[in-house]
């Protein structure tokens, strides 16, 4: 596989998407191929049938390979699911010498301390995101590196998940003959694809309505402040239509997509859809008003749960107000009149998020659908990871060149302080741990 090509694999409850992309000369993302398959072994974002999931992954990957004319080797995968939860935590370290400036090592020490938090059985910390720092009691410091101080403390946003679920995803990818190049939290991937930097600064809530789960990510001042996964999505709406109208799931899904609306007032009483009966039975007649009442009831429940999370973050405090409102994305966001309903319930400005923020201008219309927001975000994440590796390699090569003629220690120390290399995110470390686990588990 070419070096600057990245593959995102979105393992969802309803569909699995493999997307191949690369950066063009303008720094925009060009999509080379997409493969999509029905997801059979995933329930509410969690793998519950390894064999079926592997088959679905292989099918999506083959389709993407055929479209792009490339062989896929490694993928960046998203993790979500009902086992993900988040919490806020503050921690501090006392530095041995306050007359030496704070550097990366201090921050790593502080972050590693957060990893020692005791979790529920089977849970592990996936993500530790520093919010803001305090140095010797001075608050609201965004970047403490280079400052003097004895006590360094920070507020953290900690994301926790079931480690066995993450390993199962890794197992599926390995069994489908693919390399696991990176793991990313799905709400973060979707956010990268559909939000602009201005929105992240102003304060915005991204709601990604998938088949099995609804993911929420809240940004303010350019930093992620809150994440949550609500274990309902488009599938429960289909389920309700199926039960309420006594029809089969396939028909319920089609009804929802074609005639569904989240706002019952839109339909007149005499608008009726006729559904063919099962083998030799009479066709069923369903009024669109009833259909939208069923949809409305469930959508309101989902939105209200999300709104509780937004309030938990503290949206009603002036300092935490989300000026850019709400951005809806994911397949479920395509429901008619959903935007109006969300605005009505939350009183916040709302728009539908299309993943065209970073895409090349001539991208296919299919790609810019909210359905593919997470996949686009995962491809972007893979490209970013490759760029970071490249920089690290260049820095290492420089170190080698510099160390040859001189005593070894000096230049290495110097290069350590180079700001070029981004700190490895915990997700990179998690990826390595999942890989190690899979290698040793055979």
UniProtKB/TrEMBL annotation:
Q: Provide the membrane topology annotation.
A: Peripheral membrane protein
Q: Where would I find the SHS2 domain in this sequence?
A: 6-194
Cell compartments where the protein resides:
Cell membrane
Spell out the InterPro entries in the cross-references.
ATPase_NBD (IPR043129), Cell_div_FtsA (IPR020823), FtsA/MreB (IPR050696), SHS2_FtsA (IPR003494)
List the SMART domains hit by this protein, alphabetically.
FtsA
Pfam families in alphabetical order: FtsA, SHS2_FTSA
Keyword vocabulary terms for this entry: Cell cycle, Cell division, Cell membrane, Membrane
Q: Biological process GO terms, please?
A: cell division
Subunit composition and interactions: Self-interacts. Interacts with FtsZ.
The entry assigns this protein to a family as follows:
Belongs to the FtsA/MreB family.
Query: What is this protein's function?
Result: Cell division protein that is involved in the assembly of the Z ring. May serve as a membrane anchor for the Z ring.
Protein name, entry field: Cell division protein FtsA
Naturally occurring in which organism (per UniProt)? Algibacter miyuki
Q: Which gene encodes it?
A: ftsA
